[in-house]
Specification:
The complex is a heterodimer of chains A (248) and B (491).
Chain A: E1 3-6, E2 9-11, E3 33-35, H1 37-53, E4 57-63, H2 68-77, E5 81-86, H3 93-107, E6 111-115, H4 126-134, E7 137-148, E8 151-158, E9 161-168, E10 171-175, H5 187-194, E11 199-202, H6 231-244
Parallel strand pairs in A: 1-4, 1-6, 4-5, 5-11, 6-10, 7-10
Antiparallel strand pairs in A: 2-3, 7-8, 8-9
Helix pairs in contact in A: 2-5, 3-4
Chain B: E1 2-4, H1 7-10, E2 26-29, H2 33-45, E3 50-53, E4 69-72, E5 79-83, E6 88-91, H3 97-105, E7 109-110, H4 122-128, H5 135-138, E8 145-152, E9 157-161, E10 171-175, E11 181-185, H6 208-212, E12 220-228, E13 230-231, E14 235-243, H7 246-263, E15 278-283, H8 284-290, E16 303-311, H9 316-330, E17 338-340, H10 343-366, E18 372-373, H11 383-396, E19 400-405, E20 413-417, H12 421-440, H13 456-462, H14 465-478
Parallel strand pairs in B: 2-4, 3-4
Antiparallel strand pairs in B: 1-2, 5-6, 6-12, 7-13, 8-9, 8-12, 10-11, 14-16, 14-17, 15-16, 15-19, 18-20, 19-20
The chains are: A alpha/beta (248), B alpha+beta (491).
Bound molecules: flavin-adenine dinucleotide (FAD) (2 copies).
């Protein structure tokens, strides 16, 4: 079974985000980048599929050559082949999906794994756009995946319960937290990954379907609690004052 | 100021993390320094004992009152002044480490001493000279305290800034705000050749401020502290290395400890070889406790070392290579070494470390066990011997245990979990043997938790009668009626 994993390079979740002077982009100065955390589940799942069924695992990202750092992490985890599709400075989700689709057409994977969302722009678009462009089956936000011959059984978390969805190959799966426990990169594998080749392809241009008009940092939320005058809430207030605020 | 006198409301203040429980008549919760003063003056007037309470994460009963009043610092938890250029911060004593860290994150600065329990307060940390994993590179709380505002046990107020009141040999003097002069003459007290949290700090040519750091709330109340900060390092490598042989592990630790000590004298930006900022140990029992949560732990591992090193990106490959070569020389489990490079990966290693005390608490409550823990450290020369000695001693016993700790500072916690009173007797016996061992090697009975009320017996063994008498005189000088911190360190 051949697996393609699409990974996105995002600012480290611990990084303090500063909006650039143009008011439309993130100021990259001093920002550290990591693999989109949801994509780690996609990588782990891809490796497990390969370990079980054989085949190959490729990781691809659309971005600048600096994205080689996240691909090296993917290689250290056990991915065999890594590709950067080199993008211009400004691009949108459609551009990413279009180029992923073109790449997928060229290598014809049986299964494509992505994260449920990229924690930078959070647009949740790529998996769906990609499925539309290459006409694969799609199941999003999957928290459990079972492959039984050609049958793919997916569990999805839905409000108050679980939804079980069945589909078949070829298909696209986007990963939810809990799908698996991603392995830690091991020292010898990190060292080996450093000398593995990374393929660099030129992206095909597309028209921009979306444009960022402006960007701003959300206001800090006040940490207050609003309680009503119901009996329950009065008891709660007493409890909070006693146990949390320790004032009574 | 909030004042609590009802039994139910006082109860939460009577214990610390050692579970030792005391009793008290009143809790004062001042919101200003003037209110601390007011509370303290009330106590002096009523000849009432006073115990200062931080977050209560202490492990030796230091904040546990044995009667009288409690002054709790919980409301005095603010940043008072912050100087980004000088990299200094003035804080009230009740600020927790976690809140301080959050504040500093925005400025890309950090406060290096990091006791594992980050709900503890700066006031408590200063009182116990707390230390943490990064103490290996940076030192303990003491090394980052620039000035203190204190209310002494006799109700005098003083601000001590580092460098302003230095002893002339063994003769120390300083004046309070009101002009009262204190002079202390002491002898050469044998301080251990290790980091230390037992007894008053008394060294030739010492700084007066150091006397109060580590004095466990028995000489003065800290009302304000000025701390030194550092720029956060560009990058940090973290790793967990597994071993299947304890002798190789000991040799490995001694090697990286000594290399790091030399290399850490240079700034990390010019280091392209091994220079750990922390070296921590997990024994086989600790790994067994962690295995249910971390099936990745290799089956044959009998111990693990966690390290971290600061670096700049350009040197990443060279440094990783050096670690790789060295690790491969000492363990056959190299291929299992976990490495963290991104903050996200570091968080996972930190969770691994934090899972351990939780896992311990789980088995203690499941199996209804008790718990006692050593806090001994030995001088550099004895580290290998110490590791082997403790492992041998405890494997032979039939009490459950787990050993972990700041091995880079030759400092291990042997945590014993006796199941019965009889077990407890045996555990205390083992505890005594470990204390004897470290005293024999000129180490300390408490490297970071302090003596409090629970380890006085060991304090009396660590210092001779003459040294204890000097400490007692000092206590009388600042705290003439012995109302403040009564029962801490020595009677
Ligand atoms: C209007 C707009 C403008 C943008 N402008 C820029 C810009 O100027 N510069 C810039 O760097 N980025 C820009 N981006 C972000 C970029 O286009 C990618 O879409 C972004 O990295 C992922 O965002 P997403 O929210 O669309 O992905 P989602 O749909 O939330 O991501 C889901 C999954 O898709 C996969 N995926 C996402 N992005 C990539 C990728 N790049 N390569 C491979 N797989 C991927 C991952 O598996 C991810 O978990 C822009 C995005 C938008 C919406
Ligand atoms: C899970 C766990 C892990 C721990 N790990 C470490 C570790 O790695 N390193 C370490 O050093 N310790 C560790 N500790 C012990 C504890 O966190 C430290 O001793 C800490 O310094 C106590 O701070 P606190 O605010 O909780 O003080 P408390 O327990 O409230 O008080 C401790 C002492 O400080 C005195 N005190 C508090 N505030 C003041 C003040 N303003 N003026 C004068 N005296 C004052 C008290 O009277 C008492 O004697 C750990 C504890 C736990 C539970």
């Amino acid at each position: 079974m051949n697996v393609l994993i699409c990974i996105s390079r995002v600012p480290d979740t611990a990084t303090k985000i500063v909006v650039g002077s143009d008011g439309k982009t993130i100021d990259n100065q001093g920002v550290k980048f990591i693999i989109n955390p949801y994509d780690e589940y996609a990588i782990e799942e891809g490796l497990r599929i390969k370990e079980k069924f054989g085949g190959s695992v490729t990781a691809v990202t659309v971005g600048s050559e600096q994205s080689s750092d996240i691909l090296r992490t993917a290689l250290a985890m056990g991915v065999e082949k890594a590709t950067i599709i080199k993008a211009p400075e400004i691009f949108d989700s459609y551009f990413v999906a279009y180029n992923l689709a073109e790449y997928a057409k060229s290598i014809k994977p049986d299964i494509i794994l992505l994260g449920r969302q990229s924690v930078d722009f959070d647009s949740f678009q790529i998996p769906s756009l990609l499925a539309g462009l290459i006409d694969y089956n799609l199941v999003t936000v999957v928290s459990k995946l079972t492959i039984d011959a050609n049958k793919i059984i997916c569990e999805r978390d839905v409000e108050g319960g679980k939804e079980i969805v069945e589909t078949n190959l070829p298909c696209i799966i986007s990963a939810q937290k809990g799908l698996n426990e991603p392995r830690y990169p091991k020292l010898p594998d990190i060292m080996k990954a450093k000398s593995k080749p990374i393929e660099i392809l030129e992206a095909k241009p597309t028209d921009l379907k979306m444009e960022v008009i402006s960007m701003e940092i959300p206001m800090k939320q006040r940490i207050g609690k609003i309680l009503s005058d119901s009996d329950e809430d009065i008891n709660e207030l007493v409890r909070l004052l006693h146990e949390e605020a320790k004032v009574i | 100021m909030i004042i609590k006198t009802e039994k139910d409301l006082i109860k939460p203040y009577l214990k610390d993390a050692s579970n030792y429980e005391g009793y008290a008549d009143i809790v004062y919760i001042p919101e200003t320094i003037a209110e601390i003063q007011e509370a303290f003056e009330n106590c002096i007037r009523n000849k009432q004992k006073v115990t200062i309470s931080g977050a209560g994460t202490g492990l030796t009963g230091g904040k546990v009152p044995e009667g009288g009043a409690i002054i709790s610092m919980e409301k005095l938890n603010k940043v008072v002044d912050f100087d980004l250029n000088q990299k200094t911060i003035k804080v009230q004593p009740g600020i927790t480490l976690i809140d301080l860290e959050k504040f500093l994150d925005d400025y890309n600065l950090f406060y290096p001493p990091n006791p594992t329990e980050n709900n503890s307060t700066i006031g408590g940390n200063i009182a116990t000279n707390a230390s943490g994993s990064r103490t290996f590179k940076y030192g303990a709380t003491r090394d980052f305290v620039l000035s203190l505002e204190l209310i002494l046990g006799d109700n005098e107020k003083v601000k001590l800034s580092r460098g302003e009141a230095i002893a002339d040999g063994y003769f120390l003097k300083f004046k309070t705000n009101s002009g009262k002069l204190y002079s202390i003459e002491f002898n050469d007290i044998k301080m251990p050749y290790t980091k230390n949290a037992s007894g008053y700090y008394l060294k030739k040519n010492m700084d007066a401020i150091d006397l109060f750091i580590g004095s466990e709330g028995s000489l003065a109340i800290t009302t304000l502290a000025e701390l030194k900060l550092l720029d956060k390092p560009d990058y940090v490598i973290g790793g967990v290395i597994f071993f299947n042989d304890i002798v190789s592990l000991s040799d490995f630790v001694v090697t990286i400890r000594d290399l790091s000590k030399i290399n850490n004298q240079k700034h990390y930006s010019i280091i392209n070889t091994i220079a750990a900022r922390l070296i921590e140990y997990f024994d086989s029992r600790s790994l067994n406790l962690l295995k249910p949560f971390y099936p990745q732990i290799p089956e044959s591992a009998i111990a693990a070392i966690w390290f971290e090193q600061e670096y700049i990106k350009d040197n990443e490959d060279l440094i990783l290579n050096e670690w790789y070569k060295l690790i491969d020389n000492y363990t056959s489990l190299t291929q299992h070494t976990w490495i963290a490079l991104s903050d996200n990966e570091h968080k996972k290693l930190a969770e691994f470390r934090h899972r351990l005390p939780l896992a311990v608490n789980d088995i203690i409550s499941q199996k209804k066990l008790l718990k006692i823990g050593t806090d001994t450290a030995v001088p550099d020369d004895y580290l290998k011997d110490y590791i082997l000695f403790i492992n041998n001693l405890l494997t032979k016993s039939n009490i459950e245990y787990a050993i972990w700790g700041h091995i880079g500072n030759n400092h291990l916690h042997s945590n014993l979990f006796p199941a019965s009173d009889n077990d407890m007797k045996n555990a205390l016996n083992l505890y005594d043997i470990i204390i004897d061992y470290s005293l024999d090697k000129k180490g300390t009975v408490s490297a970071e938790h302090g003596i409090g009320k629970l380890k006085k017996k060991y304090f009396y063994r660590m210092f001779n009668a003459e040294s204890i008498e000097i400490m007692r005189d000092i206590r009388r000088l600042f705290n003439p009626d012995n109302l403040l911190g009564t029962g801490n360190i020595f009677d």
